[in-house]
Amino acid sequence: MDKERAPRNRTLTVIEKERISLKKNLFSPGKEKISVSQITNKTICADLFEIIGLLPMEFVDLLIIDPPYNLDKNFNGLKFSKTSDEAYLEYLLSWFPKIMKILKPTGSVYICGDWKSTFSLYQIMRDFTIIRNRIIWQREKGRGAKTNWKNATEDIWFGTKGEEYYFNVDAVKQKRKVIAPYKENGKPKDWEETDDGNFRLTCPSNFWDDISIPYWSMPENTDHPTQKPEKLIAKLILASCPENGLVLDPFLGSGTTSVVAKKLGRKYVGIEINEEYCCWAEKRLSLSDVDSNIQGYSNGVFWERNTLNLQMKERTLKSRRVLNVCNTSDTLFSRSDYGTTN
Length: 342
What we know:
- This protein is 30% helix and 23% strand.
- The chain has helices spanning 16-23, 36-39, 48-51, 85-93, 96-99, 118-128, 230-240, 256-263, 275-287, 308-337, and strands spanning 42-45, 60-65, 73-75, 78-80, 103-113, 130-138, 153-160, 174-177, 183-184, 187-188, 192-194, 197-202, 207-208, 246-249, 267-272, 297-298, 301-303.
């Protein structure tokens, strides 16, 4: 039964008529080997364990993996139960070495977890990748505790398959306000002056505190219990997947990885066992044709939190500049037609 929503609640909904149509877009594999062309830009509705051996070898540029954490969690009727550290490691080992075989020799992998599972994640990354870094995401949202510290961070381990790999740091720079602007010869040094303040493009660190969990007023929000923000996934894709490269997410959930890959001009493949989640992913992919914005990412840079008004203002100014260029070009062409360009 569909939930009742407040009028301003923008959480994604799928009605039955849409569900019937969206199911037709899903790829349902048989028992034969799967070709790259069959699944490019597709959502595969299947159990990863049943199809992992059917996937092509070394065709993926970037793996983004957000598996069930070692917690009790209900994923729309499919329950994952908390277990021992040893058993959780065995669970990871049952599929991680196999999924690494679909990654190109120059490919990269990111895998998410919390503080309880990060020990196990480190072990599989150490054994099957070259570990490059561990990102700490401060998501802020989390339940308070009377006898412990509030759990408000998650880990994202970054590794590569080989020594040669793609990484574009310029694509993931963050626009920050300059607190103490420094000038050299009377001119700004590595920052710019604007009517709205002084800003600098900074290289990203491995501590991310500028990304909020999706909530009811955001159009990307769904009812998935562990949905990752589009802004977070955008950073991973822009840094580690070349344009027109292919991103694969073996635990797609509500579709964030595929949606962001599409918005950023990358190819995608998503695998998800839950048919309802697959439908959510397909609807979000369809909606991205109309709105390709990623909250917190505008005009080629990532912005700090609480800067939406500045982003909108800069986006408007950019649109006006483009419009002015187009109008100028139209005028020049018009004059040229009548021989009056001088």
